[in-house]
What we know:
- The N and C termini lie far apart (25 Å).
- The chain is built from one helix and seven strands; from the N terminus they run ββββββαβ.
- The protein has one helix spanning 54-63, and strands at 3-6, 9-14, 20-25, 30-31, 40-44, 47-51, 67-68.
- Strands 1-6-3-4-7 form a five-stranded mixed β-sheet, covered by helices on one side.
- By secondary structure, it is mainly beta.
- Helices cover 14% and strands 43% of the residues.
Amino acid sequence: MSLTIIENLNDYDITEEKDWWVLYDMSTKKILSTPTQCAGTIASVHSLIIYDDQEEFDLYLEENNISFA
Length: 69
């Protein structure tokens, strides 16, 4: 995996403990949570960005004008 965006978070399972994830509001292009690294189940009205490469994540944010809230 490199970077994946999940839009429907109805009890979504994050299975890889080594992957990082953040909650993302696609309408405002804002990251809503601090980067977290753990497995578990998540439900939210927002989207989820899961990544395992910090440089690719930073580049994606820059290229898509996404910032932290």
